[in-house]
Design goal:
This protein is mostly helical. It has one domain: Na+/H+ antiporter like fold (Up-down Bundle). It is about 80% helix and about 0% strand. The longest helix has about 35 residues.
Length: about 425
């Protein structure tokens, strides 16, 4: 199947799934698409029992492209940019310390808490998993890929919750930035894994981390500033040109980031926030949104919805090989790890809010809402698929654990989040 045929199939399925969810399931888009993706996987496996050729065809679709590269280098920048231009940037700037502390401390704490917990579980004879050969660094890699929440899933849910603008901005901002921090932590640990723990120093790790974070933020700020100047120069005379400019910039940031080893995720988010802020000094109500016009925002909203639908279909296809290799003995450790992930997320959110509440005001149960709203999605799966084969048989366990956490957070937490908020 060539690229055009594959793209056509994905778009048709995305349209069909969206219609089924809208008319029949009537669930929030993220949850509905995840449910239908599970049915897609189950249907393919059942059909595969009847016709092995059909199963081979379905699994061959995912082998024609690298899902992790497609998501991280192509889809994620577009989705994050669309998310960044939809948040209230002025509320975010007022509360930047809260958001940055939640994003950074939460991800780093969860990485080490989940990674250490998983390593301890594997060493227990009860589970019989010690022969998989997973090292402590391997377990930390799992902790880092499962720590960041999925901003696409989170933003889609938050917009329908009728939260106050402050709380909504805190949740959206934390989700956007913890993705960037999570990817940086993952890549740093991946470098430690490649170099060997004995050849790694604190200075080298710190230097790599700083380059990714600072470089990504600076690149995003520079590109965002240039984008603002271009948009202001056009003065809304050609809306199609504004769309072309934003598309070009979103594609350019990952290319430059790859060359200089910056964080493309952080770069795209910062650029989106720059383009979303007010640039008219005389009238603070006259911002980029009015300068660019609704056309540009509607375009990015359309792109966001389309890529989001395609993403969950791809997840459904990617899960098929994992379901084929699933061992029922893994079920207990999956449940324990889900509990560990939720608890570590809770601690990583409650502690910063407890400290910040000395000087800042938070709505009642903000920490609980942010904790339970921490949905995982395509990013975690893409990073898990991006793990090196040197991990060995343990990679299958990490993939199963990742899918287990993703399914739980989207289906269970996503479906009950509205009740939690109420």
């Amino acid at each position: 199947m060539n690229f055009l045929e594959l793209a056509t199939l994905l778009l048709l399925l995305a349209s069909l799934f969206s219609i089924i969810n809208l008319r029949l399931l009537k669930l929030p888009q993220t949850i509905g698409l995840m449910v239908l993706a599970i049915f897609l996987s189950a249907g393919v496996l059942i059909a595969g029992q009847i016709s092995p050729g059909f199963l081979s065809f379905a699994t061959s679709l995912t082998e024609e492209f690298d899902f992790s590269v497609l998501l991280i280098d192509v889809m994620l920048p577009f989705l994050l940019f669309a998310g960044a231009i939809s948040v209230n940037v002025h509320e975010l700037l007022k509360d930047k310390l809260t958001i940055l502390l939640l994003a950074s401390f939460g991800v780093i704490f969860s990485t080490f808490a989940v990674g250490t917990g998983l390593f301890w579980l594997i060493e227990q004879p009860l589970f019989g998993l010690s022969e998989l050969g997973l090292t402590y660094v391997d377990c930390l890699l799992f902790g880092s890929l499962i720590a960041p929440t999925d901003p696409i899933a989170v933003l889609a849910m938050v917009k329908k919750m009728n939260l106050s603008s402050v709380t909504e901005t805190r949740i959206a901002g934390e989700s956007l930035f913890n993705d960037g921090i999570g990817v940086v932590v993952f890549l740093t640990l991946l470098n430690v894994k490649a170099e060997g723990i004995d050849n790694t120093t604190i200075q080298s790790v710190g230097s790599l981390f700083a380059t990714e974070v600072v470089g990504g933020i600076v690149l995003g700020a520079v590109m965002g500033f240039l984008g603002m100047k271009l948009v202001k120069y056009i003065e809304n005379e050609h809306v199609e040109l504004e769309v072309l400019i934003t598309l070009s910039l979103v594609l350019l940031v990952p290319v430059i980031s790859h060359i200089f080893h910056f964080s493309a995720v952080l770069g795209v988010v910062v650029m989106g926030l720059f383009l979303n802020q007010n640039i008219d000094g005389d009238d603070k109500q006259e911002g980029v949104q009015k300068v660019m016009g609704d056309y540009v925002y509607k375009f990015w909203h359309l792109l966001d919805e389309t890529l989001n639908a395609i993403l969950f279909i791809l997840i459904g296809l990617e899960i098929i090989p994992i379901l084929q290799n699933f061992d029922i003995s893994y079920l207990l450790i999956v449940i324990i790890v889900i509990f560990l992930v939720v608890v570590s997320r809770g601690i990583g959110v409650f502690l910063p809010i407890k400290i910040l509440s000395i000087k800042k005001s938070f709505e009642k149960n903000t920490a609980l809402i942010i904790t339970w709203g921490g949905l995982r999605g395509g990013l975690s799966i893409a990073l898990a698929l991006n793990l090196p084969d040197s991990i060995g048989d343990g990679k299958d366990l990490i993939l199963i654990l990742t899918y287990g956490v993703v399914l739980f957070t989207i289906l269970v937490q996503g479906l009950t989040l509205k009740k939690i908020v109420k």
